[in-house]
Structure formats: structure tokens, C-alpha cells
What we know:
By secondary structure, the chain is α/β, with parallel strands linked by helices. The chain has a single domain (3-203, 236-262), classed as Rossmann fold. The protein has 10 helices and 7 strands. It has helices spanning 12-21, 34-46, 61-74, 93-112, 137-145, 165-188, 205-211, 216-225, 234-245, 263-269, and strands at 3-8, 26-31, 50-55, 76-82, 120-124, 193-199, 256-259. The protein has a 7-stranded parallel β-sheet with strand order 3-2-1-4-5-6-7, with helices on both faces. Helix 3 packs parallel to helix 4, helix 4 (93-112) packs parallel to helix 6 (165-188) and helix 5 (137-145) packs across helix 6 (165-188). The longest helix is centred in the middle third of the chain and has 24 residues, at 165-188. It is globular and about 55 Å long.
Amino acid sequence: MMEVVVVIGPGQIGQAIARRVGFGKHLLLADKQQENANAAAEVLSNAGYDVSVGTVDVSSRKDVRALVDTAIGLGQVTGLVHAAGVSPSQASVATILKVDLYGTALVLEEFGNVIKAGGSGVVIASQSGHRLPTLPVEQNKALATTPVEELLGLPFLLPDRVTDTLHAYQISKRGNSLRVMAEAVRWGKRGARINTISPGIIMTPLAKDELTGPRGEGYRRMIAVSSAGRAGTPDEVASVAALLMGSDGGFITGSDFLMDGGVTAAYWFGELAPA
């Protein structure tokens, strides 16, 4: 039976990972906007990949379940790449929490119900999750294990507690890595693995929005004072994803990989450190 790799959010990072892990398998590319999925499918199909497309709003359980049904109708789901999300300059607090936090938890739950033994997945989180101060143990556990439909009702996620989009994004991305750690236990019972990658500034259309948006000056300074002194590329993220999803990463699950050129190091211990 055909092995299926589902790529949710087939933008520059999603496509780069698909190229590394999808050859000889069927790629199911899904995006909220049909035209985005179609554009990615054309590129990958022209490069020799076996591709089909779907639409999905990751904040809708009905949509995510429909995507799962499509995937299992194609074959055995052995790979998941979850690269969909919205950034602090693109959306409201409520939308960020619904898409980036709730949506990721929903995708992990639904695909964790069907992932095949030997399968693996990666979730694209963000360096932002590493700049949030340490949370209380009970909040960590709540982000990791609260039933999906109760997640947005947690007291520390209510509108009076999360009042700006950057905070919403940071706590969502911290929640992603915690959720993946908890889900790794459940996926492991099916013989599958799941990990998180937390990239820094990767040159994609989303990053360009940030670099020219209201926080652009801060992002440009992050790049300038980081150890790498540059932004990253989608292919560099894909190299890490290929390790995590392939046989060489067989001992890695429930982990989060920060790759940001040293920006977080500079934030905590260098020139970007808060006063």
C-alpha cells in the first residue's frame, strides 16, 4: 500500500521538507487556501513527485478529520509535516491561539489516531517559544495535556491574560513543543515518532512580512547581532526535518530542536538580553 506523507501548510518550509522526505511516497498537500496547495503541487509534480491536494482549516475539527479521511483513503499515513500557522503581524490574539495552539493540538490528536508504525512527524514551531519566561509546572502540564476542546478555556489563555499578539504567538509556540512531548508518548504506543523544530528567522514570505512589519526593526537587529549574522533558509530547516523523520532519527521523539543562528542565545546571554 502506498505510503502517504501529509504536508499541512506547503509554503517554502513545507515544500523544502516535502522534497527531502516525500520521494517514492504520495504527498498530500493541504492549505487553507486551495490556490496555495495547487501552486505547491505544480512545483513538486513538475519535479517528479506524486502529489495530490486538499484544503484544511486547522482550527476546524471537521476539516482536519476530513483531511485524515482523504489521507487514509490514499494509503498508509507514515509522515506528517505540520507547517501551517499565522504570525504576530498577521492575525489577532484570538486567531493566533486558535490556529497556532489549538490547531496544532488538533492536528496532532487526529493524525496521532492513524499514524502507522514506523511513521514520524515534525511540527514547525518557532524560536519565539524559547523567549517566553519559564512557565509554572502546572501551566506546562496544562498546555501539554489539556483535552483539545478545553485548551482555549485555560485561565492563563483568556483575553485578560493574553493581551498582545506577540505573547499569544510565544505561548502558542511554547505550547506546541510541550504538546509534541506529550503526544510523543501516545504516538510511541503506535510505534511512531513526533518532534518539533523551532526555527528562527527563515527567509519565507511570512518572514518578509515580519521584517517589513511593525516589529521589523527588532527582527533585523536579531539577525545582525546573532552568531550566524544572517537569516536561515527553508532547506536548512528541511535538513533537520529529514534527520528527525528518517531512520537516522529513530531514537529521537518528543524533542524540540531550536535552530535560530544564535538569536535565542543572544536574547538570554548576549546583546539582545532584556534590561
